[in-house]
Amino acid sequence: MESTSTELLERRVLEAAKAAEERNDPPSAWAVEASRFARESGAGGVPNLEMGRALVAGLCFSNNTPSFWKYLEQALASRLLCPLHVLSLLTPRKKNV
Question: How far apart are CA 30 and CA 2, in angstroms?
């Protein structure tokens, strides 16, 4: 059940970010919408770990554009995300051989 909630949040956040980019919405407006999605999904409080995973996985790697990085920056500035959690998600992992 938890993975379904996480997948739903990730999909909604990604769709909202794409729509905001097409409408040329400011990152702050998108951050408010993303925060609403997190509350509705029951993914937890703020800072939201599920949203951090969704943004880093779905936005930063799949859709690597400057506007999406601005959305990530706004989410961090709005305290929707934990900076250390986002940093850990962006840090490459060393594979054990």
Answer: 24
> Tell me: the pLDDT tens digits for 40-66?
776 666 677 888 888 888 766 777 778
Instruction: Please give the pLDDT value at position 67.
Output: 76
Query: Residue 97: exposed, middle, or buried by beta-carbon count in 10 A (0-12, 13-18, 19+)?
Result: exposed
- What is the rounded CA–CA span in Å between residue 58 and residue 39? 19
Decide: 71 and 17 in contact? Cβ < 8 Å.
Answer: yes
Q: What is the pTM of this model?
A: 0.70
Bond into 92 cis (ω within 30):
no
- Please say if the pLDDT value at position 84 is more than 90: yes
Q: What are phi and psi of 37, to 5 degrees?
A: -60, -40
